[in-house]
Design goal:
The complex is a heterotetramer of chains A (about 260), B (about 300), C (about 270) and D (about 500). Chain B is mostly helical. Chain B is built from 13 helices and no strands. In chain C, α3 packs across α10 and α10 packs antiparallel against α12. Chain C: One of its GO terms (cellular component) is plasma membrane.
């Protein structure tokens, strides 16, 4: 349902041009959880942002196609792009401590995309926001609280609720558990699996953690230095890695685990 | 919130005591006394001694301070040596003019700073940003009195657009350019920092129009440091006010104050220092309250 | 990238000005005080920057003025930094009532319109170049104190300070060897901005007749003396005005450069 | 807004003051700026004409007794206070007794105390006042110009704090109307003025402390009158719509030496420094020639001026020779000048260069006025200064007792410790002599003695330069009394002033 072809992203920094994403091609099938695996610096987060054209300067998407429902996201005018963002494809970010605006209530932040994309009145949006909170197991009574009044795990739930608010088809999750304690990680992963089914989502899960991929993902794409080095069903890649790089990653995980 | 404000108000008392003692000592230890105004070969020095005694200046400094403090607690700040008016009256006549200048400059500064800071940050390194970067650096680098005189030469003498003295326009422009520069830089810097925050990307990922991202999500956060800086810049405004008031013959308090220092007009000096200290403290308090209103983290911590 | 260019430009200008100031006696074509009955004359081959109302060579006065203005700026800033760093470090390191009383003193100083304090102290000390430095330093340390205190409160929490304490380092050693070097970035920024501020303050003091005193020339009092001659002898005000502007700008550029190098947020790249 | 109003209102003179009016009560005010405004509101018993001669004002005539101790003033009977009450002898007695009251903060008190005894004022009838002096005193009459204040408004009040000081009521050609602190004072015409109704509708005194701003305001046609800095003299003279007047004033500027300091004890050293002083260069550089080199402690326009004094024309060779004769190999001293006075600062810098040429090393120390006076006036011996640049504003009477008499040290204004028996005797004599010609001779001798001794190097006699816009007419002849001696005669051209 989402096809990425030959996507390249460059960063223009003092030292020269960095090819952060180098001609990446893959697709996301309906209802699956696709893992994108890579070490930090492999370009996986940039790839995640590029999918929604959220690459900031000094970065720039230089080529490629991202086809959603037959339309290329990279060619969309700004207005149409905004209708995709949040409504069809939503994102959950790495760090729940910085992903929420500290001066706005969580309710306000969840309601924003609802009002925007569904064109409903604020009262109705508020009800939908409460519903989204309930879906991530947060007491809707806390709708008027500010982010700093929540713990890290709770904040990540808020972020997920925000992403789910408009019932998107695709969720891009960029290392949503790295900033959290291990026990809370597990809760969030369980929550993701639960809502995937409940909301009939397709998920792109970006991480450096092979363990999580193995637990969660149907398929995996392995990235190294901006390029895809291996792709396939999770258990196949894990059990019989073809590339030496993947092999190394798997060996590391085995040693640890 | 109420406790926070109350707590701050309580802190003002020792602060004012400290300020009054310090300024009393500094002004009294400066050589000379108010009778220096009367130097004239026809005046017998004995007459000066008599006038000094009439003013109580023959008492030890410590006693003088206690007397001042006792009266000040009853809101009696004495009478000016030069005009014979109660200090409160004397200052009261000048304060509105200084406030008019400062507040209008303050508002004008905000009206310019915020949009310019925002646009400069959003369009970083654009011609707009570069132009205002240059203007604000130049604004910071020009001595106020020079700028004031230049503006007067151009707009009053050459172009005849604005009156040189007794009109709000030129002093307002001079003062605003002075404070504008630094604040715009701060606003731009704060905005740049905020724009790099994750929640801005989140807001964009939600599909919000750029306008909403900038003004609702980014600006409110970027205003926080600006509010603090505004509070802190108040003492400088007073300093700038003096130079500007002199050049443009603006009958404000700054000029009265500096003149009082030169004349050793102690009651007036004390009155002005105390009043401006109170204004500065209250200004900072208001800035803190504004900060707390914008930033929920502060608000709730203090609950 | 662009900012750093500006910072390098600023550094270069400061280096040039510093060199000119140091070698002023060698470079200056005339004695800065030598008067001539001719009065003010426009720039010419004999006097590249013209002469002032007393017939003194503006170029020579500018060069000698650089010595004064730059040293007023530098010394004032050193005084402010010493006082501010000391007060801030002690307050931030010890906390509690020490912190409380130091910060109240900072509040007292902050609540003063500093121009009054400067004037009153100047009246007490009589204006000369050392007192100008001293007074500007004495009235501008509070910002540094707050800044250093803030940094110290932050650094105090960090592990290496805990570690230093654990191995039995004394307070002074922890403050000066372990904590202060880590707060140096913001201090350097404050120093460049402070020096720029001090140069401007000196010129404002000159406006009040309380700056560096004649016959010594500083850019501030040259500018002040020139204001009556803006129309008849514009070179008298343009030269010191430009010198002040360029110096202050250079210092700001350096400050911005340091700030941006220190702030990692401005330099994000791919993950 | 304020300025627009001025253009609308015809017949208003837009005057300017280069500082702030502090108090509008002649008994208490000490500054020229307040006095300038008081001149429009109040009258004295006597006043001065363009030539600085005493002429009657509130007093129609006066007589002195044979022994010169009793003076009788016959007051005008057609004078009314601005509030309509008649002016009487009670007001005069009240005013002078107020000055003599030690509780009143008037520093003019000593003007009316002679040899430690106050002058006694008495109302003989409603329109006759008698003043009894302890001894005959020549400067007495010129001191009768003090503005008279109304008893019916101030009697029984604390003069120091009376609200009158802010809303004065006088007998003069203009009635006080409005005072906006630090900004302006407005007075309007007194149609019943006893010397004839003024032709102006009123005067607005705008306070502009900064000289440059004052000049700009004059050029921009915002005010009618302003002082002109010498360097702008030529340019302003050419400017259409403005006429520039220059006239001498009763003032001289000097470099005074502390004679109690051994460095200056030798007359030859002082003479050497006098020869080393190029007064012409001073005057040319600082004033573009619009001041004249000074030679004596008086001013050319004083009636007691005497040009026949030793002049010490510029002669550096002679200076070097004299220093050698005095056995001075290296002389170094510090000149104090008061901060904020650019002319004196420049003079110090120029003198420094001039003295360098004869091998004398001078340091300049600029001090705040109050701080400088503290050093110079401290009643101790010796005083802690070496040389100082100051100026004396002269009274209308040539009496200079307080400056030169040896009794006026260390307390008093003879702070240089000048001591010359002959001068002491002449000063005493000059005060007691009432015949003007006799006095002229006495003071001529005093000036000669002092100029020969050079306790001061007399630097220059300043000139007043005033720019007036063409629309102003009816000015008096330029002179030390200024251009507005007869305020009631000043008018604005083409203005319709309702009678």
């Amino acid at each position: 349902m989402l096809e990425v072809r030959n996507l390249s992203v460059n960063y223009y920094v003092d030292e020269g041009t960095v090819n952060a994403v180098a001609g990446v091609t893959f697709n996301l099938k309906e209802g699956e959880i696709l893992g994108i695996l890579g070490e930090s610096g492999s370009g996986k987060s940039t790839l995640g942002f590029a999918l929604l054209r959220l690459v900031d300067r000094p970065g720039e998407i230089v080529s490629g196609e991202i086809i959603l429902n037959g339309l290329d996201i990279l060619l969309m005018p700004e207005r149409e792009l905004r209708r995709v963002r949040g409504a069809q494809i939503a994102m959950v970010f790495q760090d729940p401590f910085t992903a929420l605006n500290p001066v706005l209530t969580i309710g306000e932040q969840i309601m924003e995309p609802i009002v925007l994309h569904q064109g409903v009145k604020r009262g109705e949006a508020r009800a939908k926001a409460a519903e989204a909170l309930r879906a991530v197991k947060i007491d809707p009574a806390r709708i008027d609280d500010y982010p700093h009044q929540f713990s890290g795990g709770m904040r990540q739930r808020v972020v997920i609720a925000m992403a789910l608010a408009c019932r998107p088809k695709i969720l891009i999750a960029d290392e949503p558990t790295t900033a959290l304690d291990v026990t809370i990680q597990a809760e969030i992963l369980a929550l993701l699996r639960e809502i995937k089914n409940q909301f009939n989502l397709s998920i792109i899960y970006i991480t450096h953690n092979f363990g999580i991929i193995r637990q969660l993902c149907d398929r995996v794409v392995v990235m190294h230095r901006g390029a895809i080095v291996e792709e396939g069903k999770t258990h196949l890649v894990f059990d019989q890695p073809k590339e030496p790089y993947t092999k190394k990653l798997v060996d590391c995980l085995r040693e640890l685990g | 919130m109420r406790k926070f404000v109350l707590n701050r108000l309580l802190q003002i008392i020792p602060l004012l005591l400290g300020i009054s003692l310090l300024s009393f000592l500094v002004t009294r230890l400066a050589p000379g006394d108010p009778t220096a105004l009367f130097i004239d070969p026809n005046i017998d020095p004995l007459e000066l001694a008599r006038v000094r005694a009439n003013w109580g200046l023959d008492q030890p400094i410590f006693i003088q301070y206690l007397v001042w403090l006792k009266n000040a607690l009853l809101l009696d700040f004495g009478r000016s040596y030069t005009t014979g008016l109660p200090v409160i009256t004397e200052i009261g006549e000048r304060l509105p003019m200084t406030l008019l200048l400062m507040i209008s400059s303050f508002i004008l500064t905000l009206l310019i700073t915020i949009p310019v800071g925002v646009i400069s940050a959003v369009k970083k390194n654009s011609w707009f940003d570069n132009l205002f970067t240059f203007i604000s650096f130049a604004g910071m680098a020009i001595p106020t009195f020079w700028l004031g005189l230049m503006l007067m030469l151009v707009f009053s003498v050459k172009l005849h657009w604005l009156p040189a003295v007794g009109n709000l326009a030129l002093p307002l422009i001079t003062m605003t350019i002075g404070s504008l520069a630094g604040l715009t830089r701060y606003q731009r810097g704060a905005m740049l920092e905020v724009l790099n925050q994750e929640y801005i990307r989140v807001a964009r990922a939600k599909g919000l129009p750029e306008r909403v991202v900038i003004f609702k999500h980014a600006l409110r956060n970027a205003l926080l440091p600006t509010i603090t800086i505004l509070g802190l810049s108040l003492p400088d405004l007073f300093g700038g006010a003096f130079v500007i008031e002199t050049i443009f013959a603006w009958p404000g308090m700054g000029r009265l104050g500096v003149q009082a220092i030169f004349q050793r007009n102690y009651p007036t000096i004390m009155g002005i220092v105390m009043l401006s200290a109170i204004l500065i403290i209250v200004g900072n308090l208001l800035a803190d309250i504004a900060y707390a209103i914008v930033d929920p983290r502060i608000r709730y911590e203090k609950k | 990238m662009r900012r750093n260019k500006a910072a390098i430009f600023g550094l270069a200008i400061m280096a040039i000005f510093l060199g000119l100031a140091i070698f002023a006696p060698v470079i200056a074509p005339y004695s800065p005080d030598e008067i001539s009955s001719a009065g003010a004359s426009p720039p010419s081959w004999q006097h590249l920057f013209g002469t002032d109302d007393l017939g003194r060579d503006v170029l020579s006065r500018s060069l000698y003025g650089a010595r004064i203005s730059l040293s007023v700026g530098a010394v004032a800033v050193v005084i402010a930094l010493l006082l501010g760093t000391l007060a801030g470090a002690v307050a931030g390191y010890y906390g509690g009532w020490v912190d409380g009383s130091i910060m109240r003193a900072v509040d007292v100083m902050f609540a003063f319109p500093s121009i009054f304090l400067i004037l009153a102290i100047q009246a007490m000390l009589t204006p000369n170049i050392y007192n100008v430095m001293f007074v500007i330093g004495l009235t501008s340390w509070m910002g540094v104190a707050r800044l250093v205190r803030g940094e110290f409160l932050r650094i105090r929490q960090l592990q290496y300070v805990e570690a230093a304490r654990a191995i039995g380092c004394g307070d002074l050693r922890i403050i000066f060897r372990h904590m202060l070097p880590n707060a140096q970035g913001p201090i350097i920024v404050a120093a460049t901005l402070g020096m720029a501020g001090a140069i401007l303050t000196e010129s404002a003091l000159s406006f009040l007749g309380m700056g560096v005193q004649p016959p010594m020339s500083s850019w501030g009092n040259m500018l002040m003396d020139s204001q009556a001659y803006m129309r008849d002898a514009p070179w008298m005000s343009i030269i010191p005005g430009l010198l002040i502007m360029v110096t202050v700008l250079s210092l700001y550029f350096i400050g911005e450069g340091v700030r941006e190098t220190l702030s990692p947020k401005e330099r994000h790249a791919g993950s | 807004m304020a300025i627009a109003m001025d253009f609308d209102q015809e017949g208003i003179l837009r005057s300017s003051l280069n500082g702030e009016v502090s108090i509008l009560n002649p008994v208490l005010s000490t500054d020229n700026i307040s006095s300038a405004v008081e001149g429009a509101i109040f009258n004295g018993l006597i006043t001065f004409n363009e030539k600085l001669e005493v002429i009657p004002e509130l007093a129609a005539s006066w007589q002195a007794s044979k022994d010169g101790k009793t003076w009788t003033f016959n007051l005008r009977r057609d004078v009314f206070w601005h509030d309509g009450r008649p002016f009487t002898s009670e007001d005069v007695v009240f005013t002078y007794n107020a000055i003599l009251n030690p509780k009143v903060n008037s520093v003019r008190r000593s003007d009316y105390i002679i040899n430690g005894q106050p002058i006694k004022f008495k109302a003989l009838d409603k329109y006759t006042v008698q003043a009894v002096l302890p001894v005959p005193f020549a400067p007495f009459l010129v001191r009768m110009g003090m503005g008279i204040v109304p008893k019916h408004l101030l009697g029984g009040k604390d003069l120091n704090t009376a609200s009158f000081n802010r809303r004065p009521v006088g007998t003069g050609p203009f009635i006080f109307k409005e005072w906006t602190s630090g900004d302006h004072v407005t007075v309007v015409r007194n149609p019943k003025y006893f010397l004839g109704a003024p032709k102006l509708a009123g005067i607005k005194y705008k306070m502009i402390a900064d000289d440059n701003s004052q000049l700009v305001a004059l050029e921009a046609d915002e005010i009618d009158e302003a002082g002109i800095p010498p360097k702008d003299y030529e340019r302003m003279k050419k400017k259409a719509g403005i006429k520039v007047y220059d006239y001498d004033v009763l003032l001289y500027i000097y470099l005074g030496f502390n004679l109690a300091n051994p460095k200056f004890a030798d007359l030859r050293v002082r003479q050497a420094l006098a020869y080393a002083t190029d007064k012409k260069q001073l005057v040319d550089l600082i004033f573009k020639g619009l001041a004249s080199p000074a030679s004596a402690p008086t001013a050319p326009i004083s009636w007691a001026y005497n040009s026949n004094v030793p002049k010490y024309e510029y002669n550096p060779e002679r200076a070097k020779k004299l220093l050698k004769e005095a056995g001075v190999n290296s002389l170094e001293f510090t000149i104090l000048v008061n901060q904020g006075n650019k002319e004196r600062e420049k003079a110090a810098v120029i003198l420094q260069q001039q003295y360098k040429k004869v091998g004398v090393n001078v340091k300049v120390r600029v001090m705040e006025w109050s701080a400088l006076l503290k050093i110079v006036n401290a009643p101790k011996d010796p005083k802690e200064f070496e040389a100082v640049i100051m100026g004396w504003s002269l009274g209308l009477d040539p009496d200079a007792y307080s400056i030169w008499h040896s009794s006026q040290y260390p307390a008093g204004f003879n702070f240089v410790k000048y001591s010359n028996k002959k001068v002491d005797r002449l000063l005493d004599q000059g005060r007691l002599t009432t015949d003007k010609n006799e006095r002229k001779k006495i003071y001529a001798k005093i000036w000669q003695e002092i100029a020969a001794d050079q306790p001061y190097i007399f630097l220059w006699y300043p000139k007043a330069l005033t720019g007036i816009r063409d629309r102003v007419g009816g000015l008096s002849k330029p002179g030390p009394a200024g251009l507005f001696v007869h305020l009631e005669k000043v008018f604005i051209r083409n203005a319709q002033v309702r009678p």
